[in-house]
Design goal:
Layout lengths: L1 H20 L18 E8 L7 H13 L4 H9 L1 E5 L4 H6 L24 H14 L4 E12 L5 E6 L4 H7 L1 H9 L9 E3 L8 H8 L5 E8 L2 E3 L6 E3 L22
Parallel strand pairs: 1-2, 1-3, 3-6, 4-5
Antiparallel strand pairs: 4-6, 7-8
GO biological process, one term: proteolysis
Family: Belongs to the peptidase M14 family.
Cofactor: Zn(2+)
Length: about 260
Amino acid sequence: FEHFFQLGQMQFQIALHLSFSLCPLPPLSAAANLRPGAEQRVVFITARVHPGETPSSFVCQGIIDFLVSQHPIAKVLRDHLVFKIAPMLNPDGVYLGNYRCSLMGFDLNRHWANPSPWAHPTLHGVKQLIIEMYNNPKINLEFYIDIHAHSTMMNGFMYGNIFEDEERFQRQAVFPKLLCQNAEDFSYSSTSFNRDAVKAGTGRRFLGGLLNDTSYCYTLEVSFYSYVLGGPTSAVPYTEEASMPHSSKNTYPSGYLSV
């Protein structure tokens, strides 16, 4: 029995590693930014590291659909930035219907510091890609955003890092403040900055310590349920039907932080 168990485990590891290595992560940008040798300003986005947090996929899909649209702001973003998006870091967990862990029982968002190529293949691959970009003098990885969903809090909000450098810490607060000014469902009052030990293995914490001090790393959380505009009785549920004000062609709940 032990022999067959080890053989099955080996085949599983090979299949996972091979499937991820064959899955490209194409950049989303204007062609001029992708020429060999061109300098790149990169925004890296990840989502669905926790399988049960389905709203994170809605947000990620909304971002992708907006960035590939003909909206003038989307065009400006493509002209100036390169977007790398990993929309599902835990595909096996999603397939199995897990809430938080992968097929092998790992919470991937606690293993950024030392991901295993066989136990955490998607995380390992994404981390290697980020490190390659970080070591490339032509690439400036300016933003990292990891999208999650929250089961108890309302609205969208962020977790950011705390740094000893006061100026760097103050700069980290600017982007959430801008989101609060431009997205009615984003709450700056629910946004917090921390360096809790239990969060040390998360993407936000690990990359915040790895990347240079001009980079910004955040966890973006969005409520499973609704956002509140005025008071405790003014909750607006996140629904697909109520979230498509621009076009009935949308196939995602664009009301999730569609800014």
